[in-house]
Write a structure and sequence with these properties.
This protein is mostly helical. It contains 17 helices and no strands. Helix 7 crosses helix 9. The radius of gyration is 27 Å and the shape is elongated.
């Protein structure tokens, strides 16, 4: 196949992405100027084509737009007479991805996750600003962002922002995770109380949604604080076994002081109190550290066990 074959047959491809792939195939060693000229020809061809409305083209359209944008930026660098290209800041990109329902769900979600992986601190700062997370008085626009976050939507372009932001906090600002969940949960409850439709449509709470997507504490920038936040959320969940699951988690991470604290909050002579006491006692004995915590745990001994 000759180098100009893709361009001469551009109208025969089902997707312009194939044109891009074939044109640049094996061109890593080709001089930059030649690759640049080919990119310009490819971009011109894409703009002239009538792109078929297929699922593939719909998914790839944002990526092709990025390809053409990068081409224009390259042109602006190589040609001093070219008009400068406006490049979005990270903040503008994050805000657009949070808001823009014209892009496909997969594209928006993938882009947000890529930004979170590459620029975690900057991304979470921009998300917090988008929500007015640290503002005492939210603007109307920021409040609408929160409501869109927690209100169910039948749109196919709604992305799981609650889960995305929950993981973002967990990995980079675990000390703020519980506050985020509490704020989102409160707004969800208020939204439900104001809508008869929402009251008749049972759905998963923000708390349960966040819990279902959290990774292990070791994936956080601050594992100890992440563990504390994780356990706090588990304890607050509506699950009947929530306290037991919370204790299992702190024991598995050998966070003994946190386990003692959890037991002290449940020292009310209930069934949970007895179960948690026995769980912690067994774990301390198995790890041969009972003597170090003997005084603390025996003060929390259920009366029915004495």
């Amino acid at each position: 196949m000759t180098d100009d074959f893709p361009l001469k047959n551009a109208d025969k491809f089902q997707s312009p992405a194939l044109l891009v792939a074939l044109t640049h195939q094996g061109k890593q060693s080709v001089p930059c100027t030649k690759t640049y000229r080919q990119s310009q020809l490819v971009q011109d061809s894409i703009q002239k084509q009538r792109i078929l409305p297929t699922d593939l083209n719909e998914e790839l359209d944002p990526l092709l737009n990025e390809y053409c944008m990068l081409g224009r930026q390259l042109h602006a660098v190589m040609d001093e007479n070219a008009e400068p290209i406006h490049v979005k800041t990270l903040k503008q990109t994050v805000f657009d991805l949070m808001d823009n329902c014209q892009l496909s769900t997969d594209h928006r979600y993938t882009q947000l996750n890529v930004l979170a992986d590459c620029y975690p601190t900057e991304t979470i700062d921009n998300v917090m600003e988008y929500l007015g997370f640290e503002d005492e008085d939210m603007t109307h626009e920021q409040m609408s962002h929160w409501l869109a976050l927690v209100t169910p939507n039948s749109s196919e372009n709604q992305i799981p922002l609650v889960e995305f932001i929950g993981r973002l906090f967990y990995r980079n600002r675990p000390e703020s995770l519980v506050k985020f969940v509490q704020m989102a949960q409160d707004l969800q409850m208020k939204s439900e109380s104001m809508s008869a439709f929402n009251r008749s449509s049972p759905k998963t709470s923000v708390l349960e949604r966040v819990l279902a997507c959290l990774p292990q504490p070791k994936q956080s920038s601050d594992p100890q604080t992440a563990l504390k936040a994780h356990v706090q959320l588990i304890s607050a969940s509506a699950n009947k076994q929530s306290k037991i699951k919370a204790m299992q988690m702190v024991i598995s991470h050998k966070s003994w002081d946190q386990a003692i604290s959890l037991l002290s909050h449940e020292a009310n002579e209930s069934c949970d109190h007895i179960v948690l006491f026995n769980m912690l006692l067994a774990a301390l004995l198995q790890n041969n550290i009972f003597s170090s915590y003997c005084d603390k745990i025996m003060k929390l001994l259920p009366s029915t066990v004495r």
